[in-house]
Amino acid sequence: MADKMEIVRVGSRKSELAMIQTNHVVEMLQKVHPETEFKIVTMETIGDHIQDKPLASIGESNLFTKELEKALALDEVDMLVHSLKDMPSRLPSNMAIGAICEREDPHDALVLHKKLTGISIETMKEGSVLGTSSVRRVAQLKRKFPHLVFKDVRGNLNTRLRKLDEGQVYDGLVLAVAGMMRMGWEHRISQILKPDICKYSVSQGALGIEIKTKNRRMHELLRQLNHVPTLIRCIAERGLLKTLEGGCSAPVAVHSELEENRLTLNASVLSLDGSELREEEKSITLPQELTQEHSLDAETNEEMKLFSSVIAPWVSQHAMQEAEALGVSVAKGLFDKGAGPILEAAKEEIAERRK
């Protein structure tokens, strides 16, 4: 009798975009592990349930991950697929990011109502209304374009675009390029906002796969899904956010590059109204070889190291350590320039909005 096929349960949110992302990961896994069956288990999160408030005002730091992590803790699923930008900078002690897939374009996009064809954010009229619930986007864009008006918009991408198309409130939206690309709606992007206009969120555009730290079988299954340049950049960005003690809704913006083993991280901390800005940029040179030969069996009695909550046994541990240290160093540079009081003031203002 043939051996019974192994079944691996993959946890995901129910939203259309989340399912597209999870199916993408499952397809990649199925190609490299045809002998294994991957079963998607869906569930809703706090962020999915609450659609009438801005994310920053809800008062939770893990809006899109908490319920999923409960299922992982109870062994109801074996791995979770997340938009990495939604993941807190600190994970539960027994969980880690076991793989980071290749990053889609991390930038933000301007999506305009059809009546504004040919317009850019630089040429929008005074009083034009842009919809976004991201304090990071609002802070940067208010600073650059004080003549524009920003209003909250919640809901999945379909809902947001419907609200835009109705034309009663918004002239445009600011959305992640990655989400638009994955939904097949790149034709609706009016302008990609480059870092000189709007830096992106930590890990934006990347997919992270969360597992139990000690589940070596999952490490083996995920080995080939890691995109090393993306992983290195995201470790640096997450190291920054963890040191700043900022959540995914904090007014922290980044831009990173990895070219010929030269890793650069540029980061900004802003007041919620964009009036104050602190910026820091640093670069390091990484080892020439970013991967390494590794045997999990050899470490049976050892704890595998985490870097910004990431475990990747087949990626250079030195490179990951250096990337995390870069993020920490950039954060400390921001603190030296006075970012601390700005972040505290932003946290207090957000807390007031929750009352």
TrEMBL record:
<dbReference type="InterPro" id="IPR000860">
    <property type="entry name" value="HemC"/>
</dbReference>
<feature type="domain" description="Porphobilinogen deaminase N-terminal">
    <location>
        <begin position="8"/>
        <end position="219"/>
    </location>
</feature>
<dbReference type="InterPro" id="IPR022417">
    <property type="entry name" value="Porphobilin_deaminase_N"/>
</dbReference>
<dbReference type="InterPro" id="IPR022419">
    <property type="entry name" value="Porphobilin_deaminase_cofac_BS"/>
</dbReference>
<dbReference type="GO" id="GO:0004418">
    <property type="term" value="F:hydroxymethylbilane synthase activity"/>
</dbReference>
<keyword id="KW-0808">Transferase</keyword>
<keyword id="KW-0627">Porphyrin biosynthesis</keyword>
<dbReference type="InterPro" id="IPR022418">
    <property type="entry name" value="Porphobilinogen_deaminase_C"/>
</dbReference>
<comment type="pathway">
    <text>Porphyrin-containing compound metabolism; protoporphyrin-IX biosynthesis; coproporphyrinogen-III from 5-aminolevulinate: step 2/4.</text>
</comment>
<dbReference type="Pfam" id="PF03900">
    <property type="entry name" value="Porphobil_deamC"/>
</dbReference>
<protein>
    <recommendedName>
        <fullName>hydroxymethylbilane synthase</fullName>
        <ecNumber>2.5.1.61</ecNumber>
    </recommendedName>
</protein>
<comment type="function">
    <text>Tetrapolymerization of the monopyrrole PBG into the hydroxymethylbilane pre-uroporphyrinogen in several discrete steps.</text>
</comment>
<dbReference type="Pfam" id="PF01379">
    <property type="entry name" value="Porphobil_deam"/>
</dbReference>
<dbReference type="InterPro" id="IPR036803">
    <property type="entry name" value="Porphobilinogen_deaminase_C_sf"/>
</dbReference>
<feature type="domain" description="Porphobilinogen deaminase C-terminal">
    <location>
        <begin position="232"/>
        <end position="288"/>
    </location>
</feature>
<dbReference type="GO" id="GO:0006783">
    <property type="term" value="P:heme biosynthetic process"/>
</dbReference>
<dbReference type="GO" id="GO:0006782">
    <property type="term" value="P:protoporphyrinogen IX biosynthetic process"/>
</dbReference>
<dbReference type="GO" id="GO:0005737">
    <property type="term" value="C:cytoplasm"/>
</dbReference>
<comment type="similarity">
    <text>Belongs to the HMBS family.</text>
</comment>
